[in-house]
Design brief:
The protein is α/β, with parallel strands linked by helices. It is built from 15 helices and 10 strands. The chain has an 8-stranded mixed β-sheet with strand order 5-2-1-6-7-8-9-10, with helices on both faces. It has a two-stranded antiparallel sheet with strand order 3-4. The structure holds 1,4-dihydronicotinamide adenine dinucleotide and 1,3-dihydroxyacetonephosphate.
Length: 341
């Protein structure tokens, strides 16, 4: 079914561009809002977004626009692909335009002062809107290059999930539905932290056993935290949990992994982030997650270890020593008394 009204994508970065193209390829008119008029003009003329997605042709049905009010007025379904640091400030001034709209967050981050996820911010701003999230193992470049990909749309609003599936599902992109918005969104935000650690491990030449240990213990840690926060642990076995964790921790295409890799090569955090020149949400998530885990008393040794290296002046060797010598734990938290009966 082709939408009668254009679909909005907010954000001129790599993921916004990749999703805008998918929607256009499925026959929909797309308004891609971005703040920078020069970028919009360049895309309009050259049909490419060279800063964020070089070499990918932008579909003719994607119209780059800079008038946010007009975009929100004209569109009923709106995908939000803004950095987490910008989402509230961009949308709050237009709250009255959002009532009744379908707002789907693609952003994988946590707000610093409030510890809110992006869809919770959307709810704050627009309590009358219909809200969902899209999350999964979705490296923007691979999506744009039509690598076979799957994702999850999550919302309590089943009709919204169905609509998102209808507009995005395509030859190379499968959209699964979930009712666990909180779990799906939390998975997407948390995995970024572990991708930094994974990138670092690779730069330091650590072996395959180490990488596997990191990913698996990361999943244990994420799930432990999520359960403490009220999420369903089973969600973490899906695409938006372990799926996204695997891709982000194993791909040099991930920006969070790239930051970790640069740190492992000896760059400072500032230099690593500057060299990247794109959003790496894991850096901010690490700060807020470390504080929250401490506040609620959840054991997250990988998060604490990375935080100690980046913000508390510990060396990597000190942290590795601490992690490896910590008291042995049980493998899987949720099996009663470690499965020994
Ligand atoms: N790139 C990817 O592979 C994926 C990214 N995401 C998530 O999507 C979100 C956006 O990431 P990307 O598109 O990758 O970012 P990006 O780094 O490619 O681009 C960021 C975009 O946000 C714009 N921006 C920054 N501050 C802004 C502000 N105050 N107002 C308006 N626009 C502003 C920039 O101009 C740029 O167009 C992030 O939360 C990320 O975790 C989710 C899945 C995949
Ligand atoms: O979320 C992503 C893949 O699913 C993209 O990860 P990065 O933000 O680390 O590039």
């Amino acid at each position: 079914m082709t939408e009668q009204r254009p679909i909005a994508v907010l954000g001129g970065g790599s993921f916004g561009t990749a999703v805008a193209n998918l929607l256009a390829e499925n026959g929909h008119a797309v308004r891609q809002w971005m703040r920078d008029p020069e970028q919009a003009e360049a895309i309009r003329v050259h049909r490419e977004n060279p800063r964020y997605l070089k070499g990918i042709k932008i579909h003719p049905a994607v119209e780059p626009v800079t008038d946010l009010l007009a975009t929100l007025t004209d569109c009923e379904l709106c995908f939000v692909a803004l950095p987490s640091s910008a989402l509230r400030s961009v949308l709050a001034p237009h709250a009255e335009r959002l009532a009744g709209k379908m707002l789907v967050s693609l952003t994988k981050g946590i707000e610093a002062q409030t510890f809110k996820l992006m869809s919770e911010i959307l709810e704050d701003i627009a309590p009358q809107a219909r809200i969902g999230v899209l999350s999964g193992p979705n490296l923007a470049r691979e999506v744009a290059e039509h690598a076979l990909t799957a994702t999850v749309v999550a919302s309590e609003d089943e009709a919204l999930c169905e609509r998102v599936q209808a507009v995005l599902h395509g030859r190379t992109f499968r959209v699964y539905a979930s009712g666990d918005r909180f779990g799906v969104e939390l998975g997407g935000a948390l995995k970024n932290v572990y991708a930094i650690i994974a990138g670092m491990a690779v730069a330091l030449g650590m072996g395959e056993n180490t990488k596997s240990m990191l990913i698996t213990r990361a999943l244990a840690e994420m799930t432990r935290f999520a359960v403490n926060q009220g999420a369903n642990p089973m969600t973490f076995l899906g695409l938006a949990g372990v799926g996204d964790l695997i891709v982000t921790c194993s791909s040099p295409k991930s920006r969070n992994y790239q930051v970790g890799f640069a740190l492992g090569q000896g760059l400072s955090l500032d230099d690593a982030v500057t060299r990247l020149g794109e959003v790496a949400e894991g850096v901010n998530t690490l700060k807020v997650l470390k504080a929250k885990a401490q506040e609620v008393g959840v054991y997250m040794p990988l998060v604490a270890g990375l935080h100690a290296i980046l913000f508390e002046g510990r060396t990597l060797n000190q942290v590795i020593e601490l992690l490896m010598r910590a008291e042995p734990k049980t493998d899987v938290d949720f099996i009663s008394t470690s499965g020994f009966n």
